[in-house]
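Crash report, auto-generated. Payload:
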Amino acid sequence: MNDQLYQDRIVALAKAKTGAGKLATPTRSARRDNPLCGDRVTMDVRLENGRIAEIAHQVRGCLLCQASASALASVAVGRDSADIALLRHDAERALGREPGTAAAPFDAFAPVAAHKSRQDCVLLPFEALKDALS
Amino acid sequence: MSFDVVSVRRQFPILSQMIDGKPIHYLDNGASAQTPVAVLDAVRKYETTGRANVLRGVHRLAERATEAYENARTEVAAFLGVKPMEIVFTGGCTAAINLVAYSYGSLLKPGDRILLSELEHHSNIVPWQLLRARAGIEIDMLPVTEDGRIDLGQLPRLLTPRTRLVSVAHVSNVTGALVDVKMVVDAAKMAGAKVMLDGAQRAPHGPIDVPSLGVDFYVFAGHKAYGPNGIGVLWARPELQEAMPPFHGGGSMIGRVTFAETTWAPPPRRFEAGTPPIGPAIGLGAACGWMRGLDWAGAHEHEMALVQRVMDGLQKVDGARLFGPAGLQNRYPVVSFTLEGVHPHDVAQMLDSFGVAVRAGHHCAQPLMDHFDLDGTTRVSIAPYNDNSDIDALLAGVRHAAKTLR
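Recovered output after restart:
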């Protein structure tokens, strides 16, 4: 079952580490912890006219959290906070928490739908980015 | 004769269950141990033949319930080598520590000090922080050594004339290290401080001769010691119990109630307000009886052979790093490790697909994780019913995680 959870696309997203690191001069930065598992995500963004011009994340967390941060960074540039909220719905759909079909890249997280205890790992980067944009 | 693990396993029905067509390899005993038939039978007997409230009723079922409840107290007392009326039933180990922090804590004065250690479970840290906020006490911390033991060499420096209590884990829930109780007690007595041991990880490994330890308080949890959830134990010296005010108020803990004044029942009733967790207490009594019947010399040797098998196997996995004592001396069967490049939760999740149950994360010991600059560890915790097949499944899963997740 878990070999299906750690399917190639999720592992590839995590290994890609898209956006991993820090920004030299972020407009905003936010850190979020998951007190249950200790995962921690820090999101840096540089904004231009309210839209994300640059994004970077530091994840001290599991592979699912890393993959989610990487997926989010891969599509975040050029988007504003309303766009990011829409992307989160995509992730929620992939996790089976909302009806409908998720689009790429978040459809990769569909295997996590069967693992409720791990879904917050996927959503933590969204929480940190939401804080950074608010 | 060697330890008969097959006959022990047979007493735990859950272990013969299959999940997704695979046997269960339960190595998360430090979080919650499994329950033998003897415990299930005792609880079922109470629920089906003697269920009633205790201490109050005069009818036959109330008599049976009260007798079973007090027999359980006697069983627990025998397990700890103390007198039955020195045993207080609580809602758990955390509840027992909170009871001491509140009740014994109310006898402390601003500026009094409590000495803990860096490897404590949060349940032996946070209640003292609440007391600090309430009563103005101070908290000191014994650091840990690099092999995951409490650094008792720091006792002389950290024990002060204002230290009232030293409260430490008898066995670490992360590293399995057994504390040198004599060293703690000798130093504490010299300083005039009391000693409490958190026995949550020690009690599941056999009877404890508490009087010979020389401590003042001992606590443990039922569910980690093959008993039901929702039950824990506090033992405290009778003279301390006598001096301690109640924690919770309610029925059963009173002498006489008027609106002008209420007097307290003597211990242990003083600390058992309201209807106690009767079924769980009876189950814990049965668990203590079951443990007293086990060959612990053989069981311990068996458990530590499994620890050695875990350590030998992990040392062959590239990037695996063990935490805690390197050897088997003065330790209990808990092994924590990390796998370089793979988060502990991912290791644990992968192990689940091999039918292996372990715990991953900070183990409610964040200060210890901070000391080692870790997000968390994967923890293997062993009980007498574990066998080589459990360890081999664990090692296969770890090797697979190392191969596929980094």
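Post-recovery validation: Chain A is about 40% helix and 20% strand.
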